Amino acid sequence: MKIDDFIRDIPDFPNPGIIFKDITPLLANHNALVSCADQLAALSPKGVNIDKVIGVESRGFIIGGMIAERLGAGFVPVRKKGKLPYKVKSKNYSLEYGEDTLEIHIDAIQPGEHVLIHDDVLATGGTAKAVCDLVVELGGVVVQCNFIMKLDFLNGKDKLNVPISSLLTY
Questions:
Q1: Which stretches make up the Phosphoribosyltransferase domain (predicted)?
Q2: Model pTM greater than 0.85?
Q3: Do 54 and 131 meet the contact criterion of CB atoms below 8 Å apart?
Q4: Residue 96 is a catalytic residue
Q5: Are 44 and 56 within 8 A, CB to CB?
Q6: Which of 11, 60, 64, 169 has the fewest other C-beta atoms within 10 Å?
């Protein structure tokens, strides 16, 4: 199934000049959603047991959980500041139109665990880099970051020192 048929462009959102890649049509279509999760799980590194899949707030939660199920792995949410109820490790980061803070529970990743990080889009790389840093600080090993899409013109891959995969490239 062609996933890009279910990605909608929204001009000038959230700011003028930005073309937002909207995945809500993908999420609303059962067949497209299942196909997307299957395709992303298939991109996982072969021969590596994935212990945890991280889903990045908020769109990364939806398909990240589906990927974890397909890989027989646990699922870990990484959230924006103040959203997790237990003790957290925090990381500030820059994104294409501002700054923010991400948090993960301090016991979410055990030393040596193999972690796949999933988010919907790789743009400037700030979010993915912050999540990679959090995993490493907790003793985990990031084996791959995967995305529904990457926006190559923003050079986000240049901030990451881990394998990257995506279904779509713009």
A1: 26-143
A2: yes
A3: yes
A4: yes
A5: no
A6: 11
Catalytic member of 79, 96, 113, 137: 96
Task: Determine which one of 59, 79, 103, 113 is catalytic.
Answer: 59
Cβ atoms within 10 Å of 80's Cβ, excluding its own? 13
In 3D, which of 58, 4, 54, 64 has the Cα closest to residue 29? 4
- At residue 167, the pLDDT reads 98
Q: What is the pLDDT of residues 32-55, one digit of tens each?
A: 999 999 999 999 999 999 999 999
Helix (H, G, I), strand (E, B) or coil at 62: helix
From CA 159, how far away is CA 41, in angstroms rounded?
Answer: 23
Q: Does 59 qualify as catalytic in the annotation?
A: yes
Give φ, ψ of 161 to 5 degrees: -110, 35
93-133 tens-digit pLDDT: 986 667 899 999 999 999 999 999 999 999 999 999 999 99
